[in-house]
Specification:
The longest helix is centred in the N-terminal third of the chain and has 33 residues, at 9-41. The termini are far apart. The chain is 78% helix and 5% strand. It has one domain (15-80). It has helices at residues 9-41, 45-57, 63-80; strands at residues 2-3, 7-8. It has 82 residues and is mainly alpha-helical. Strands 1-2 form a two-stranded antiparallel ribbon. The chain is built from 3 helices and 2 strands.
Length: 82
Protein backbone atom coordinates (compact mmCIF):
# COMPACT_ATOMS: atom_id res chain seq x y z
CA UNK A 1 0.00 0.00 0.00
CA UNK A 2 1.27 3.46 -0.89
CA UNK A 3 0.71 6.47 1.35
CA UNK A 4 0.54 10.12 0.26
CA UNK A 5 4.03 11.37 -0.52
CA UNK A 6 5.06 8.02 -2.00
CA UNK A 7 5.93 6.24 1.28
CA UNK A 8 5.26 2.52 1.42
CA UNK A 9 3.70 0.89 4.49
CA UNK A 10 7.07 -0.56 5.51
CA UNK A 11 8.81 2.84 5.31
CA UNK A 12 6.03 4.38 7.39
CA UNK A 13 6.38 1.66 10.05
CA UNK A 14 10.13 2.29 10.16
CA UNK A 15 9.54 6.02 10.54
CA UNK A 16 7.04 5.46 13.33
CA UNK A 17 9.42 3.09 15.14
CA UNK A 18 12.26 5.56 14.73
CA UNK A 19 10.05 8.36 16.08
CA UNK A 20 8.96 6.30 19.12
CA UNK A 21 12.56 5.25 19.82
CA UNK A 22 13.65 8.86 19.54
CA UNK A 23 10.91 10.00 21.95
CA UNK A 24 11.97 7.34 24.47
CA UNK A 25 15.58 8.41 24.11
CA UNK A 26 14.70 12.08 24.63
CA UNK A 27 12.68 11.17 27.72
CA UNK A 28 15.54 9.10 29.19
CA UNK A 29 18.09 11.80 28.52
CA UNK A 30 15.96 14.59 29.97
CA UNK A 31 15.24 12.44 33.05
CA UNK A 32 18.92 11.69 33.62
CA UNK A 33 19.93 15.32 33.22
CA UNK A 34 17.07 16.53 35.47
CA UNK A 35 18.12 14.14 38.24
CA UNK A 36 21.81 14.89 37.73
CA UNK A 37 21.48 18.66 37.84
CA UNK A 38 19.11 18.65 40.79
CA UNK A 39 20.71 16.03 43.00
CA UNK A 40 24.38 16.31 42.18
CA UNK A 41 24.79 19.98 41.29
CA UNK A 42 21.70 21.60 42.86
CA UNK A 43 20.96 23.39 39.56
CA UNK A 44 17.78 24.37 37.76
CA UNK A 45 15.54 21.83 36.06
CA UNK A 46 14.96 24.22 33.15
CA UNK A 47 18.69 24.42 32.47
CA UNK A 48 18.77 20.62 32.58
CA UNK A 49 15.96 20.26 30.06
CA UNK A 50 17.57 22.86 27.82
CA UNK A 51 20.89 21.02 27.94
CA UNK A 52 19.14 17.74 27.11
CA UNK A 53 17.39 19.29 24.12
CA UNK A 54 20.65 20.78 22.86
CA UNK A 55 22.26 17.33 23.04
CA UNK A 56 19.33 15.78 21.20
CA UNK A 57 19.29 18.51 18.55
CA UNK A 58 23.00 18.12 17.94
CA UNK A 59 22.41 14.37 17.34
CA UNK A 60 24.65 13.34 20.24
CA UNK A 61 21.78 11.65 22.03
CA UNK A 62 22.31 7.97 21.33
CA UNK A 63 21.27 5.12 23.59
CA UNK A 64 24.93 4.63 24.53
CA UNK A 65 25.28 8.33 25.37
CA UNK A 66 22.13 8.20 27.53
CA UNK A 67 23.33 5.07 29.31
CA UNK A 68 26.76 6.59 30.01
CA UNK A 69 25.19 9.74 31.45
CA UNK A 70 23.00 7.63 33.72
CA UNK A 71 25.95 5.53 34.81
CA UNK A 72 28.11 8.58 35.58
CA UNK A 73 25.20 10.09 37.48
CA UNK A 74 24.73 6.91 39.49
CA UNK A 75 28.41 6.97 40.46
CA UNK A 76 28.24 10.68 41.40
CA UNK A 77 25.17 10.12 43.57
CA UNK A 78 26.84 7.20 45.34
CA UNK A 79 30.05 9.21 45.79
CA UNK A 80 28.29 12.30 47.23
CA UNK A 81 26.15 10.09 49.47
CA UNK A 82 22.78 11.43 48.23
Amino acid sequence: MKFPGGHSERETDTNINWYLENQRRKHDLISFIKIGVNLVHGGSIFKAQHKARLLIDSKKATSKNTFQKGWKLKRSVVRTGL
